[in-house]
Design goal:
432 residues; D-Amino Acid Oxidase, Chain A, domain 2; single chain; alpha/beta; seven-stranded mixed sheet; 16 helices; FAD/NAD(P)-binding domain; six-stranded mixed sheet; 21 strands
């Protein structure tokens, strides 16, 4: 196999397919290379896809056209201990009409649809093709080689969109060969079948409405958190762990996940469902400080390969950043093609456009958030403090009550310590 194209995209995830779609719509001959037997086959995701203005611009009827599950109208955060929990929920009426604020999706369906749209626009999809190296000519990247196949694919530019491990970016010398575990997370998920009517009744939903809930204090002291998202007729329930913290804990992800599902409050939510599958996935968690070199001679890096994931704990964003960065990468390649310059300088508009977009601006704004999330008290002491505080407020003992302020300070002193509370509050203020 040896063929030439005007551009090669490695990885048919949201970033890669968005890049290929953008370039194909402009008339470029694009190869979209995917190691799975179909796009999305090797992806673990059952979660929230936040608004994607870049794709909504390409597809004005995006929410009707894409394979989406439910649109999110309710968002909750739960502080949890072994015996109790305290939840807050927001339900906004303007979330219940298009353009929706977010959707639950399944990556295999969504990724396949987006890649098919790229193919319909003129891109060539090559599946079961694992890139093992880049091809160089005159000091520039000029293509890729495929494992187990003779020959190579050639193009004046390669877009590396092959996920967090991105061997393409590594081979091109744009990122290190090893990762800092402090900048990585691992997610584990259980998919639980449940009748649609039961989901609607249990979570107070109608029509195609959905509910997204994050949990703190559910990881037995390991840095991380939990999630529950409603699909049409299933629940996606799981945990995300800080990789270094998980490794030092000696605990296994699936044991922690099973304990999470058996926690009394969670057990009520999943009762009546049937476990369908488990899955796991590596996630870039380092934020802005984890971003590698994005541009080289004949190559761009985008999506998870570029660490475009915002894991601040306020909103967990990844696919929307990946897709937008893919569109921007495609636009940069189109500009380079018109100028006939695929050097680092000729592709530099990619970085400029990214820096002007929400992708880099948001990652830079929350640059210190990943460091704040390394505070172990967030995952045990603070959930215990919040639950204790709310329990004391609602407890009836036939004795005079203390003021809310005194109740809060009492719980803070017992569970965290007032000095640590003030220090953590200052640290959080500086980070956010």
């Amino acid at each position: 196999m040896s063929k030439s194209y005007q551009a090669i995209v490695v990885g048919a995830g949201p970033a890669g397919s968005s890049a290929a779609l953008t370039m194909a719509r402009a008339g470029l001959d694009v190869a979209l290379v995917e190691r799975g037997s179909f796009p999305g086959e090797k992806n673990m995701f059952g979660g929230v896809l936040h608004r994607m203005p870049s794709l909504e611009k390409i597809f004005p009827d995006f929410w009707e056209r894409a394979p989406l599950e439910r649109h999110i109208v309710k968002k909750g955060v739960t502080f949890m201990t072994g015996e109790s929990c305290f939840s807050t929920t927001i339900e906004a009426g303007n979330y219940d009409r298009p353009p929706y604020n977010g959707y639950t999706i399944f990556r295999p369906s969504f990724d396949r649809w987006l890649a098919d749209e790229a193919v319909a626009a003129g891109a060539t999809l090559i599946t079961r093709a694992t890139v093992d190296d880049v091809v160089r000519k005159d000091g520039r990247i000029s293509g890729v080689s495929i494992v187990g196949r003779s020959g190579q694919l050639h193009a004046p530019v390669v877009v590396a969109a092959d996920g967090v491990l991105s061997f393409t970016a590594q081979k091109a010398g744009l990122r290190k060969a090893t990762f800092d575990p402090a900048q990585m997370a691992v997610g584990v998920k259980a998919l639980i079948d449940m009748p649609r009517e039961m989901i609607d009744d249990r979570f107070g939903l109608v029509r195609d409405q959905g509910f997204a809930n994050e949990f703190v204090g559910c990881t037995e002291g390991v840095r991380g958190g939990g999630f529950l998202y409603t699909n049409y007729d299933s629940l996606s329930v799981g945990l995300v762990f800080h990789l270094a913290s998980l490794r030092t804990s000696g605990k296994t992800p699936y044991d922690l996940l099973n304990a999470f599902l058996e926690q009394p409050q969670m057990a009520k939510m999943v009762c009546g469902g049937r476990l369908q599958e488990y899955s796991a996935h590596l996630i870039p968690e380092g934020g802005y400080d984890m971003i590698p070199e994005l541009v080289g001679d004949g190559i761009l890096v985008t999506g998870d390969a570029a660490a475009f994931c915002n894991a601040t704990g306020l909103n967990l964003e990844g696919i929307n950043l990946a897709s937008h960065s893919g569109v921007v990468a495609g636009e940069a390649v189109i500009a380079a093609h018109r100028a006939g310059d695929f050097s680092r300088y000729g592709l530099s508009s990619y970085k400029k456009m990214l820096e002007e977009s929400f992708v880099i601006k948001d990652l830079k704004l929350f640059r210190n958030a990943p460091h704040m999330l390394h505070n172990n008290r967030i995952y045990q002491e603070y959930p215990e403090m919040m639950c204790s505080f709310m329990e004391n407020i609602y407890k009836i003992e036939g004795a005079p009550k203390q003021s809310v302020t005194r109740q809060f300070l009492k719980s803070a002193k017992e569970k965290v310590g007032l000095g640590k509370l003030l220090a953590d509050g200052f640290s959080a203020w500086r980070s956010l």
